[in-house]
Design a protein that fits this description.
By secondary structure, this protein is mainly alpha-helical. It has two domains: about 1-55; about 95-145, no CATH class. The protein has helices at about 5-55, 100-125, 135-140. About 0% of the residues are buried. Keywords: Coiled coil.
Length: about 150
C-alpha cells in the first residue's frame, strides 16, 4: 500500500470539495445581494407611489343644493386633526414663610420629582376610555403595548 498516494488523493478530494463549497457560497451571496437590491428597489418605488398619493389628495367636489343657504354649506375637505394648544398653567408654588431657603429648595425638588414621576406613570398606563376600573381594564394596561 502506498500511503502517500492515498493521502494525496484524499487531500485533492478535500481541495476539490472545498473549492466547490466556496463557489456555492459565492453564488448564494450573489443571489442574496441581487434579491436584496430588488427588494430595496421595490420598496423605494412603493414609497415613491405612496408619497405621490399622499402629496396630492383628490378631493371630489360635493354638489351644492340650491335650496340650502350658502352659509350652511361647507367645503368637502378632509378632517385634519390638530392638537389643542397647551393651556395648562401650573399654579404658583405656595411658599411657607416658616421654611428656611434650604428647606424651600428641598421642597421644590421634591415637588419636581413628584411631577416627573407622575408624568412617567401617566405615559406608562393605558386606560380604556369608558373609565370603568375592573379586572377587564387590566388587559388594556399591558406594558408591552406601551414600549
Amino acid at each position: 500500500m502506498d500511503y502517500a498516494a492515498d493521502i494525496e488523493q484524499i487531500a485533492a478530494e478535500a481541495r476539490r470539495r472545498s473549492a466547490q463549497l466556496s463557489e456555492d457560497i459565492e453564488q448564494i451571496n450573489r443571489r442574496s445581494a441581487q434579491a436584496a437590491e430588488d427588494v430595496a428597489q421595490r420598496a423605494i418605488d412603493r414609497l415613491r407611489e405612496l408619497r405621490e398619493a399622499d402629496a396630492e389628495p383628490e378631493i371630489p367636489e360635493a354638489p351644492v343644493q340650491q335650496d340650502v343657504p350658502a352659509e350652511f354649506v361647507t367645503p368637502a375637505e378632509p378632517f385634519r386633526w390638530q392638537p389643542a394648544p397647551a393651556t395648562a398653567v401650573e399654579p404658583a408654588p405656595v411658599v411657607d414663610p416658616t421654611l428656611t431657603p434650604e428647606q424651600q429648595q428641598q421642597a421644590e425638588i421634591r415637588t419636581a420629582i413628584a411631577r416627573a414621576r407622575a408624568a412617567r406613570e401617566a405615559r406608562s398606563v393605558a386606560t380604556p376610555s369608558d373609565g370603568d376600573y375592573d379586572a377587564e381594564t387590566e388587559y388594556y394596561r399591558r406594558s408591552a403595548w406601551l414600549e
